[in-house]
Structure of D-lactate ferricytochrome c oxidoreductase:
Amino acid sequence: MAVPASRSTVRALRALQKCTQQTVRVAPRARYIPQHVRAFTLSTRRHEDHSEPGHDVKYTTDLYPEIKRDPKFSELTQEHVDFFKKTLSDESAVIDGLSKDATDDIEPFNRDWMKKFRGRTKIVLKPKNAEEVSKILKYCNDNMLAVVPQGGNSGLVGGSVPVFDEVVINLTRMNKIRGFDDVSGILVADAGVIMEVADNYLKEHGHVYPLDLGAKGSAQIGGNVAANAGGLRFLRYGSLHGNVLGLEVVLPDGTIVDDLSKLRKNNTGYDLKQLFIGAEGTIGIITGVSLQTPQRAKAVNVAYFGLESYEKVQKAFKEAKMRLGEILSAFELMDAESQKFVHNKTQMKRPLEGEYPFYCLVETSGSNGEHDNEKLEAFLEHVMGEEIVTDGVVAQDDTQIAELWSWREGITEAIGHNGGTYKYDLSIPIKDLYQLVEDTRERLNSKNLIGDNKTALGVVGFGHMGDANLHLNIPVRQYDKEVEEALEPWVYEWIQKRNGSISAEHGLGIVKKKYIGYSKSPVMIELMKQIKQLYDPKGIMMPYKYI
Ligand code: FAD
Ligand code: MLT
Ligand code: ZN
């Protein structure tokens, strides 16, 4: 679209050229991008974090002494351990901390990624197939042993680790791709397949895993489904409630439910698999997933902008939807504070010369590079010409795409490495989205809780603008009751007043169990309890969490 070459348009486009020239080779402007270039591998980082001094993790029960162990559960005995060892044929499938000191081996399964929760399990089981999961669960159910299913342990609500001595059933060894149909794009895989592994496999077949997130190097397909994860491609490919076609699930009593349908359409009664999507392991263990995967885009472009106000961010998003239409694949929001944390942590050169209160990352994915590029340029000219966007850069090659994404995907780690982060993950109408960050800043400042030598290092806002999903994060030097009490339930009340969701994508886990009433009515909570009772009458799955 032709845009009058106003003085500001020229100034803005020059800025674009100048920035890109710093690093650019002459390169095609839109091309096929291997997705792995922007993946983090968390397994390594997790171990690094634990060795940092001052970053040791308190036991959950020390942080929250009000949570009491339910005496209805049995304590692990040698007889139980012997049964598990006999049932799981491979010796490495049982990490046994009862018969011997296995502290170092067991510790990574007891601690969560946020360094906030730490359980005291003495046993980790790693079954290889649904039959083994079935035998273990039946035994736990018969013997009243509490259970925590665990995938890549990248969850952000403390759901994936035990609170007390629950048995951890880790799906890592269930790691086989069972089949792929390249006509329909339907993938069937074990629940323990890592997202990145699935995506690399799909790449070879011209398809793409319909979900992308910073933890893709360790999060598993089953964990994605159990958490109903959202992530960076939600805007384009939608929810797992739509993309999951079938599940294989083991119920707490050991029953294997084979609903591994490969059909897109199937109106034969209640769609039971939907209950397990987002159930966070409370009613059964997912062992297999059948998933609709889209065709992989041949041309991907990424642009990064600076904007002067949240109002302009909203305008830019509206224009992106209008002008980029079907090729828009991500529209992410980052505030100045979030980018400062990434900069301080990584010391990377900032993509733009100036500093702005807000930044957006826009990604397009399509099948015709030239066409996509024309659209992107028209969009850029428009938003700069109208002074919606003040400055911006467009990545010119794969490396620059990865670099720009790292300013967004690196936020979680950059803010988390100081000691801890209070995380809130909400959805409210888009116009009010950022107001919460400002109100929180004001609240913590008024209570003198932020700053040098204070517990909180700042208040950070970022998230999936395209899905009206904000991540409000308060990085802290250490987890602290005074900060927590200043934030909770105040943040949840703030969200409730706007009829929002207190968890847009991370789930409930242990963190939000007691706050569910801020987003669900008493009638709905009662129905949820009835479902839990129906599937897990003895309550062995995920006690102390979810509901
Ligand atoms: P885990 O953390 O191991 O488990 C998550 C929950 O599911 C737990 O309650 C667990 O008990 C249960 N569970 C796991 N596997 C199974 C199974 N097979 N059957 C039944 N229950 C099971 N989340 C988002 O939604 N969007 C994001 O953009 C996003 N980005 C992230 C970025 C970073 C850097 C990190 C650390 C996390 C991010 N997350 C995000 C959160 C997390 O990665 C996702 O929720 C992910 O889907 C969890 O997968 P996992 O295999 O690690 O599951
Ligand atoms: C993200 O969007 O980066 C994730 O949900 C992780 C987070 O909230 O920290
Ligand atoms: Zn997110």
